[in-house]
Amino acid sequence: MRALNLVFAAAVALSSGPALAGAATWHVEALPDTLPLASQSCLSTYTIVGQKGFAAAFLDESTDELRKARANIKLGGKVFNLLLVSTKRSGKDGPDSTGPGAQTDRVFKDKTGAVTVETVVKVTKENPEADSVEMEGSLTVKYLGGTQTVRIEGGVAC
User: Where in the sequence is the domain holding 42, given as residue range(s)?
Assistant: First the structure.
């Protein structure tokens, strides 16, 4: 019986070990109002669904220029500057699809490659008179061996 208990204890330790080791010690935080990100054209701003207040959790320049379009995110108390490394619209490279229901997938990384952020958002409403688009979707962050996905809402204003 003692041998069976030891085998059971070892199995529990092995099965829960990696899961605990991969647990994130950070989370996506609200960005400060004073960020260096200054867009010359459009700016995407996203908040976390259900988060109290309206502080942005992710900002990006909304251009499709790879390695030039910048974004910001705050993880574990630190603000990271990111660059766009990939973009697809409704499964196509570049701005081939727009309008309600159109999906945009964008991937950003910091200069060291330690932070990867993917946004997958769909257009929910266009506001041509205000030159803006409302969007919702998900934000997935990979950092320090952990991954977190949160629901986001916001959009693009020009």
Answer: 24-157
